[in-house]
Amino acid sequence: MSNSAKLRITAFDGFSSNVNLSVRSVSPALSGAVFNFSDTTLTLSEYTVGSDFWVEVPTSVSSGLYIITIEGRNGGLTRTIDVRLNVNTKDPTFIEI
Length: 97
Known about the structure:
97 residues, mainly beta, four-stranded antiparallel sheet, three-stranded antiparallel sheet
């Protein structure tokens, strides 16, 4: 099953600059994963629309909880948010009767 998270920007004190989104870190490491944003740069008019974020993980990834820190940056301002990814793998050799 695949899901995505919607990332939206809330501006304070008249902030209106473009915000660049990226993955800062993942804990524990998630080797081979691909991190996707529907839009990596949000303009003021896109703050409320946001960007979809989803992760593609290889079948070799172990089940468990992974914390993905996403960064929003513009010039000297940086903010982060943690997104939880719960990976549940199934044994492909198991057949339910």
